[in-house]
Amino acid sequence: MMDMVLDFGKIIIADLILSGDNALIIGMAAAGLAPELRKKAILYGMVIAAVLRIVFAVVATKLLGIPGILFVGSLLLVWVCWRLYQEIRENVDEQAEHALMDAEDPTKGYTGAPTRTLFSALVSITIADVSMSLDNVLAVAAIADGDTNMLIFGLALAIILMAFAATMIMHLLTMYPWISWLGLIVLVYVAGEMMYRGFFDASSGVGPMLGLIEGYNLSKGH
């Protein structure tokens, strides 16, 4: 029971701290549009991010069951941790908060004659969202470890937070940067655990697959 509570806590923290780059890209793209197009850009950008998360979650669930993929996923999660570390150092959450506030204020951001279409802004958002949505889904899928209910919870929470509380979350993370550092520590732990299991697990680890070690039964029992 306690393990499940801790896992849900990890997912909540991961969703919170990994929403910053999404908010920054959507806010910056929207702020560069004429004021009358910004709300549409923010709404459509959130929808695109939500759809990508659902697609990636389905793919990740299938892939993580393949022997050896867990170790590869752990390496990707290490890369996510490195990116998050750089974002915390560069105050991305504060930039995202300002970008979203500018996009929501018709007197700020770009206010001249339209020089960019809504379609071009959404293309930029989609390209950036591919990487960012993958980060979020990979972290949640790693924590859920095959638990469908936990994966759905993490996915739904990420979408709800992004759609209804993005500016508030960015303000919270800007006011209390220790939350981001705590989240980074949690993700580093998840990546380390995932790498350990991805190498040493008897049924799916690369160590036993390559004949390097005998392996151990490291299944969480989901």
From TrEMBL:
Keywords: Membrane, Transmembrane, Transmembrane helix
Membrane topology summary: Multi-pass membrane protein
Any coiled-coil regions, as ranges: none
Annotated transmembrane regions: 12-34, 41-60, 66-85, 151-172, 178-196
Main location: membrane
Keyword Cytoplasm: no
Record's GO cellular component terms: membrane
Pfam families reported for this sequence: TerC
Compartments (UniProt record): Membrane
InterPro entries referenced in this protein's UniProt entry, alphabetically: Integral_membrane_TerC (IPR005496), Integral_membrane_YjbE (IPR022301)
Superkingdom of the source species: Bacteria
Family: Belongs to the TerC family.
Name by which UniProt lists this protein: Membrane protein
Organism: Neptunicoccus cionae
